[in-house]
Amino acid sequence: MTRFYGNLVLMLSLFLMVTHKATARPENNPLVELSSRSELVELAGYGEEKLSSVVVTGTVVCEACLARETGVYAYPVSSAMVAVSCKNGRGIMKKNNWVQETTNEYGDFMIDLPSRLHAIPSLHKACVVKVLRLPKDSPCKRFPIGKAKTIKLLSNRNNLRTYSVGSIRLQQTSKLSRSCLKVQNDGRDTAW
C-alpha cells in the first residue's frame, strides 16, 4: 500500500510542476509583459484591423422610355444586386472570388473586396463588375442586363486602392423606347 501512495504522490507532484510551468507568464521579455494582446497581434501583422483596403465603386442607371412624349429618361436603380468577380492567378473565375452588394437609393454601390483578393496581380484586368439582379419594379427588368464592365484604378493612397466602373447604363430596347429615341432625335435632344 505504501508503494501505491508513493507513486500517487510522485504523479501529483509531476502534474503540479507541469501545470505551474504551463500557466506561468513568460518572464524576461518586457515587450510581452508591457503590451496588451491587441498590440502584440498588430505588431505581428495579424488581427482584426486590415492592413489595406480595396474598394470598387459605381452607379447603376436605367435608361427607359416611360412615355413617348417625354423621351428617354435615365434614373438610378436602387436595390439592384451587383457583383465583382475576379479571376485567380491562373485566369480562372471561381465562385469564392465573387463579392455581392446592393445599390443604395441613388444607384450607387461600394464593394469592399476581401483581403484574399487583394494580392491578385493586375486587379484591373482580373476583375469585372456585373449586375446580377434588378428590382421587380424597374422598367429595365424585362430586358437583358448586359455585359460585365472592367474596373479602373482611381486612386492608391494610405493603403486604400479605389477602383471604379463609372456608370453601368442599362437600356430598355423595346419598340416604345425606339420611338422615344426617334422623337428625341427629331427634337435634336441628343444629349447622351
Let me know the number of strands.
9
What structural category characterises the helix and strand content?
A: alpha+beta
What's the tally of helices?
A: 5
Low-confidence stretches: 188-192
What Rg, in angstroms, do the CA atoms define? 30 Å
Number of domains: 2
Order of H and E elements: HHHEEEEEHEEEEH
CATH top-level class of the largest domain: Mainly Beta
The largest β sheet comes out as: 5 strands, mixed
Distance between the termini: 100 Å
Strand content: 25-35%
Mean pLDDT: 76
Shape: elongated
The helicity comes to: 25-40%
CATH homologous superfamily caption of the largest domain: Immunoglobulins
And the CATH topology of the largest domain? Answer: Immunoglobulin-like
List keywords for this structure.
192 residues; alpha+beta; Immunoglobulin-like; 2 domains; 5-stranded mixed sheet; disordered C terminus; Pollen Ole e 1 allergen and extensin family protein; signal
Helix and strand arrangement:
Blueprint: H1 2-23, H2 30-34, H3 37-44, E1 53-65, E2 72-76, E3 81-87, E4 93-102, E5 108-112, H4 123-126, E6 127-133, E7 149-150, E8 152-157, E9 160-171, H5 175-186
Parallel strand pairs: 1-9
Antiparallel strand pairs: 1-2, 1-5, 3-4, 3-6, 6-7, 8-9
Structure description:
This protein is of the alpha+beta class. The protein has helices at residues 2-23, 30-34, 37-44, 123-126, 175-186, and strands spanning 53-65, 72-76, 81-87, 93-102, 108-112, 127-133, 149-150, 152-157, 160-171. It folds into two domains: 2-44; 53-186, Immunoglobulins (Immunoglobulin-like, Sandwich). This is Pollen Ole e 1 allergen and extensin family protein. Pfam families: Pollen_Ole_e_1. It comes from Aquilegia coerulea (Rocky mountain columbine). Residues 1-24 form the signal peptide.
